[in-house]
Amino acid sequence: PEILNNSFQLSSLPLQILLYVNGVYYIFYFLATLTMIVYKSQVFSYPDDFLAPDLLVLFIMAILEVPRLYLGSKGNLTEEEAPLGLSLVLTLGSVVLAVYFLAWQTYVLRADVILNALLLSAYGLESGLKVMAIAAFVS
């Protein structure tokens, strides 16, 4: 007897690819931003009171990135809206921290603007794909 499989795949391939690319880009982003903070602390008169918070924000962002990407990938692949929704909430936190590096850190170089503009663009695209995936899973 032939078994018919009428199930549809709802997970998003573009979202999965973007999550992977964001993971690779974030490693580059973290290393580049860390290097620039060290550079700025050596070249500019970087107040000691501001060096620690800039580093702390970068490390908090890195810690946040791991569950954000894991939950996004897991939610997409298992077609569950809860992990994907939680990843979306964590993305909002990452956006705030990226805006910190774009606008509020002690010294903002052109390289900071470029790195953060790329990161924020990726977050925006990823968030849109997450919302579309969640809508597909719910319906």
From TrEMBL:
<feature type="transmembrane region" description="Helical">
    <location>
        <begin position="115"/>
        <end position="138"/>
    </location>
</feature>
<feature type="transmembrane region" description="Helical">
    <location>
        <begin position="51"/>
        <end position="70"/>
    </location>
</feature>
<dbReference type="GO" id="GO:0035869">
    <property type="term" value="C:ciliary transition zone"/>
</dbReference>
<keyword id="KW-1133">Transmembrane helix</keyword>
<keyword id="KW-0966">Cell projection</keyword>
<feature type="transmembrane region" description="Helical">
    <location>
        <begin position="82"/>
        <end position="103"/>
    </location>
</feature>
<dbReference type="GO" id="GO:0016020">
    <property type="term" value="C:membrane"/>
</dbReference>
<feature type="transmembrane region" description="Helical">
    <location>
        <begin position="17"/>
        <end position="39"/>
    </location>
</feature>
<dbReference type="InterPro" id="IPR019184">
    <property type="entry name" value="Uncharacterised_TM-17"/>
</dbReference>
<dbReference type="GO" id="GO:1905515">
    <property type="term" value="P:non-motile cilium assembly"/>
</dbReference>
<keyword id="KW-0472">Membrane</keyword>
<protein>
    <submittedName>
        <fullName>TMM80 protein</fullName>
    </submittedName>
</protein>
<keyword id="KW-0812">Transmembrane</keyword>
<dbReference type="Pfam" id="PF09799">
    <property type="entry name" value="Transmemb_17"/>
</dbReference>
